[in-house]
Design goal:
- With 459 residues, the protein is an alpha/beta fold.
- It has four domains: 126 residues, Response regulator (Rossmann fold); 172 residues, 3-Layer(aba) Sandwich (Rossmann fold); 90 residues, Orthogonal Bundle (Helicase, Ruva Protein, domain 3); 54 residues, Arc Repressor Mutant, subunit A (Orthogonal Bundle).
- The two termini are 54 Å apart.
- The strands form seven sheets. A five-stranded parallel sheet has the order 2-1-3-6-7, with helices on both faces. It has a five-stranded parallel sheet with strand order 11-12-15-10-16.
- 49% of the residues lie in helices and 15% in strands.
- Helix 18 crosses helix 19.
Length: 459
């Protein structure tokens, strides 16, 4: 079986044929090409794991062919070969993306080792990308954690729109992770090497917000002793994220509309027009359509920013993610604070499920951080949680020993399964997969929790 698909490019016919024969004997599938232009046509027509290129070709430059490889098939490893090698040439080749640089006459063991190393690194990178994709699919994307169906749909949307220029409006209650979504969009776009600039619009009065966004010239207002570069200019060739956009005044809304339409603005007190290339993401926890109806938000601006809307669900609507989020926060705080805390008791998890989380994910993070820092043991229990969480059962404060563990867990378990069933249109196979359990276990739980009767009632 082939160990890899190789392309060998060398205009010395004798070297080409002898090396090709030897590499095939080593188990590699190999194509041999003797010219620059033929090699370009070949790499565009076929995928290769590794390409070996002689730097001096009769009809072209091997270094230029390396650049073509990096653009056309960046996943292929490249080894440069020359009979006229210098240190500078080797450095240039590595800097331009070659995996290795070999000089003639080639030693068999040296060539074989270089090929094996290049293919091994390629396989590691491929496996890492695969594992990262699997983790993203199951647990989240970047720093956003979740395997709830609603969150998976959001992850898919982020992947779909990240590399476009479309304006995105991210909506959701405070603490749902709107800033994390904006950063994930930026990191998955071709602008990821550029700046990501975040502005909390609601934290500044209008006159300061205008200067913050657009900058100002010296003397524009009292205290403006020098020129200031605004956030829009700082975000040039990158992404700007405007949080709490619903708080913008009518005058600021007019200025924002112009920037969105023309990507132009003037600094406060200045008359020189600035042009920018920036992706604009916005967020709000307000109902902007209601704000438009009430006359508080411009309709034309609303239509302009609401090109793509990502609505984040509150934590109370994604109960299945609470244990995953809690464990992730716990591990991070434990590591940072050097605490030996390993997890939460079943009773503590049940209490987290019962609570309504008005502060959403941010509140959960704060609760877990407090429990890790103030807790005495290696496991977080009910007593380590705030009273409003650890003692709440059905909206009333009770002592945890007034009900059995089984009874405490049934409520949140039923709600989690019901949420996933509804998000999958009561498809049991899809629900079992989403919950990470087999179908038989799901059927037994549905029967025990009365969900079978509910399903029949809904049909």
């Amino acid at each position: 079986m082939s160990q890899g698909v190789l392309l060998l490019v060398d205009d010395d016919r004798h070297v080409l044929e002898s090396m090709a024969e030897w590499l095939r004997d080593q188990g590699y599938e190999l194509d041999a090409i003797d010219s620059y232009h033929a090699a370009i046509a070949q790499i565009k027509a076929k995928a290769y794991d590794l390409i070996l290129i002689d730097i001096r070709l009769s009809d072209g430059d091997g270094m230029e062919l390396l650049s073509v490889c990096r653009e056309t098939c960046p996943e292929a490893a490249v080894i440069m070969i020359t009979g006229y090698g210098t240190v500078d040439t080797a450095v240039d080749a590595i800097r331009e993306g070659a995996f290795d640089f070999l000089t003639k006459p080639l030693i068999d063991d040296e060539l074989l080792l270089a090929i094996e190393r290049a293919l091994a690194q390629k396989n590691v990178l491929r496996e890492n990308n695969h594992l990262r994709a699997q983790l993203d699919l199951r647990f989240g994307i970047d720093n956003i954690i979740g395997h709830d169906m609603k969150m998976r749909q959001i992850f898919d949307m982020i992947e779909s729109i990240a590399d476009t220029r479309a304006t995105v409006l991210i909506t959701g209650e405070s603490g749902t992770g709107k800033s994390l979504v904006a950063r994930a969009i930026h990191r998955r776009s071709h602008r990821s090497d550029g700046p990501f600039v975040e502005v909390a619009c609601g934290a500044l009065p209008e006159n300061l917000l205008e200067s913050e966004l657009f900058g100002h010239v010296a003397g524009a207002f009292t205290g403006a002793t020098g020129n200031k570069i605004g956030k829009f200019k700082l975000a040039d060739c990158g992404t700007i994220f405007l949080d709490e956009i619903g708080t913008a005044s009518p005058a600021m809304q007019v200025k924002l509309l112009r920037v969105l339409q023309e990507l132009q603005f003037e600094p406060v007190g200045g008359n020189q027009t600035e042009n920018i290339d920036v992706r604009i993401l916005l967020a709000t926890n307000e109902d902007l359509s209601k704000a438009v109806a009430d006359g508080r938000f411009r309709q034309d601006l609303f239509y302009r920013i609401n090109v793509i809307n990502i609505g984040l669900p509150p934590l109370r609507e994604r109960l299945a993610d609470i244990p995953l989020l809690a464990q992730s926060f716990l591990e991070k705080v434990a590591e940072d604070s050097h605490r030996q805390v390993e997890g939460l008791t079943d009773e503590a998890i049940a209490a987290l499920h019962r609570y309504r989380w008005p502060g959403n994910v941010r509140e959960l993070q704060n609760v877990i951080e407090r429990a890790v820092l103030l807790g005495k043991g290696q496991i977080i229990g009910l007593d380590d949680l705030p009273p409003e969480i650890g003692g709440v059962i059905g909206g009333v404060v009770h002592h945890s020993n007034k009900m059995t563990l089984k009874q405490a867990l049934e409520g949140p378990e039923r709600q989690i399964i019901l949420d996933v069933l509804e998000s999958n249109q009561w498809n049991r196979n899809a629900t079992a997969d989403a919950l990470g359990i087999n179908r038989t276990t799901l059927y037994k739980k549905m029967k025990r929790l009365g969900l079978e009767d509910l399903e029949h009632a809904l049909q």
